[in-house]
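WARN no homologs supplied; continuing
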Amino acid sequence: MNQPCVCGRRHVWLGGLASVFAPGAHAAPKDKFIDVHHHLVPPAWVDAVKRAKLDNPPMVSWTPEKSLEDMDKAGTATAITSPMPPQVGFLPAPEAAKVARESNEWARQLAKDHPGRFGVFAMLPMPYIDETLKEIEYAFDTLKVDGVGMMTNYGDKWLGYPEFAPVFDELNRRKGVVYTHPMSPSCCVNLVKGVPDAAVDWGADTTRTLISLIFSGASARYSDINFIFSHGGGVITSVAERLRIQMVTTPPYKGKFTRDMVDHELNRFFYDTAQVANEITIQALAKLVPLSQIVFGTDFPYRTSAEHVAGLTARFNDEELAAIGRGNALRILPAWRNA
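OK structure emitted
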């Protein structure tokens, strides 16, 4: 059953926040936020992106120190880092595998250099299946990552497509966490003059891949994977009624899916708060899915931790904020329970 959002001004779950503004060493605050949507920029990856002229100012100016400064200003104890779009699908398979490997090793070293502050969602050389399976093995067994980071699409294919079944079979076997981030699909680049893809279509693409997982049956098959969808699931709150009513009562899904089946999948996914900590969107999400499925995310370096903490603090009580900020993530990231 969905848990209602308790709205209005609430007490601030930031005891001792003033201490994290103090200059000095980056000491991890206890019992504070875990950011599951926090980007990093490994050198091997950004070099490849620059050569392809796919870089942007926040990307090329990122440093670990900037991440730590942003985290400390808001009481974020740990950021589970992930690569930003376009990851490595624009590269040939051998180079994609090489860049992904070097990037994951760099991310793991960053975590070792700053104990307790950084986790790792590994970059995969998708859409190359053999190379991706090799990197999953190395990332989990050698690097001991927290999960993997995927794009919502790879050109003209979304995550529910059968071409990706070997990858998800393996991730399901490992009971892995799959964090997803939107990117422009090949069909939908520069659709509206003067409107960047990220403004509208990235939200739509998150929902596209979510729907593809449900209505392909992949989500039910991969029930041991914990999926995290960025930006509150994109436009899911706007189209949920179409999924729960229209799609299950008309061909080709009538008789194959029911509203209860759709709701089951929607209610088991996780949704991060990045760029949706405003009154309208976050409260709609908290009415659509259980509060237990909402996790803290910031989209740094494109947005800040402080912005999201302020937005969430204004709309949830202490208990709810503790769950969104940390408790819900710990259910699927057990390595951080004693951090």
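Strands lie at 33-40, 76-83, 118-123, 147-151, 177-181, 226-229, 270-272, 294-295.
OK
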